[in-house]
Please model this.
Amino acid sequence: MASRPKYELYNEVINRIDIVGGRRWRKLLILKDKKTGSRYLRLYGFGQNYKIYDLDSLAGVIGVLKVGAEQLGWNVIGDAALREKLSQIDALKQDKEKYKQRINELYNELLLVKSERLKESIPKYEGELDAFKTLVDSSPSEDDVQQWLKEHLWVLGAEYLDSQPIENISQFTFENSRFDFFLERFDTFFDIIELKKPTARLFTGAADTEDVSRGKPISKDLAASISQMIHYLELATHKRKKLREIAKIDIYKPRGLIVIGRTKDKAELKRLRSVVSYVVNIEVVSYDMLFRKAELFIKHLKNRTQ
Model:
């Protein structure tokens, strides 16, 4: 059997009133002293250091005290100063709801405008993807690919849709290391992008005799790219303060994205995914995987705008 609250031993509980906006166990108690018969208000569930963090919390406490006082017959309305403060709180609460409603309206309008903009961009994206496939099939240099992708960042992923590449990291004297570029994701974190040739081999030699998912040893190109990216990630983390001072970007736990080689069949795709599964904070994609990612992005846009 649960024990009764201590206040019930000496008082008769006339009413319990929940505090709006407060925690569920916080209440206003209207009590009558069993010995003297006097009636009074008591805030229940409040610690000695109870904090009021916002307008709703303040309004909840004041409002419930007002209700309790009225139930006891106290002349709350006759107190001009209190009446004025309560009126100000009510006005501020109304303004808050009005602004909140307006923010929601503007947000919905923004989503509509953005959806229309994306809908109009679908033919453009489709044309750019075809052009990128043609470029990759022509065995371009790393510089050619880098220049094209800098102007069409959406191909790298929707998270970079509104990003601007930050280049020439070598100017910051990073021990003669040169990243291709940084890209800021929509969540304000940065990734290091490293582009390799589409002609780079991913795997080489005969199939391993052991039954492993990738089946073949990774190539020198792929191994070197992963090792290089690990170095870049360590360097960016180590030079975080310098990047913040000079480049005005804050690097916190950056991720790496390597684009390299081709995966023209399911076996190659399976091998690459097997390798990547063992690498933390580094994504390795082939140009064919990038094509597929861009195709899914366009398909998603079409479904959203239908």
User: Anything to note?
Assistant: The beta strands are 11-18, 27-33, 39-44, 181-184, 190-195, 255-259, 282-285. The chain has two domains: 7-76, 118-304. Confidence is low (pLDDT under 50) at residues 168-173. The longest strand covers residues 11-18.
